[in-house]
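Workshop exercise sheet. Pairs work together: one partner reads the sequence aloud, the other fills in the structure field after running the prediction. Swap roles for the next sheet.
Pair: D.N. / O.F.
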Amino acid sequence: MQNKKILIVEDEPKLAQLLADYLAYDGFESHIIADGDNVISWVKHYAPDLILMDIMLPKRDGMSLCKEIREFSTVPLFLLTARVAETDRLKGLEIGADDYICKPYSAKEVVARIKAIFRRLQNFSPELPRVSGFSLDKMKCHAHYEGILLELTLSEFRLLSTLLDKRGKVYSRANLLDVLHEDERDISDRTVDTHIKNLRQKLQKVSGKKDIIQSVYGMGYMIE
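Structure field:
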C-alpha cells in the first residue's frame, strides 16, 4: 500500500486530520483540502490514487465535484456524508462515486475499505481477455470495446469484468454486491442496479447496443 496518494476533501479539520493520521499509520500519503475551490485543479495536477470527499463543502459541493471529476478521471472516489437517505446514496452512485460512507464512521473502517480496494486491484489477473469485442486490462483497470476506451469507474470495471469472466452465467444482485464490497454492510440491491444502469449507458454510447448486459427477471444480470 506504500506510495498510494489519497486526497481528503473535508471541511472539519479534526475529522480530516484523524483520517490522515490513520492513513499515514498504514503507509499512505495523504493531502487535505478543506473546501471545494481547488479540488479539480489539484486532482488534474497530482493524480491521486483515491479520493475521500465530503458532500457538504464550503464554496462548492461534493456532488458537483464528483460529476466533474468523472469527466476526466476514473480515480476511485468515496463520498463522505451525514445524509443517510437511500435516494442521496443512489444519487452519488449515479454521478460516478464508487462508494458512499455515512457519518459518523470509524476512521479505521474507512482505511480498511481503502485497503480492500487496492487489494482487489493487486489481485486482478494480468491477462488481457478479449470477449465479443471487449478487451480488458485488469492490471490497469482499462476496458475497450472494439478498440474504443470505456471511461469506467472502478466499480463499473469490476462489474463488467465479472460478467465477462463467465459469459452466460446469471449473477444475482447479492453476487454482484460481493464483487463491489468485501465487508458485510447492509447495502441496498439498488446500489448494483445504479452501477449497472451507468455501465449500460456507457456501453450503449460506444456500441449502439442496449442489451449487452441482460436482465434476467427475478434472478439478476448476465452477458451472453
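Discussion prompt: The chain has a mean pLDDT of 85. What would you look at next?
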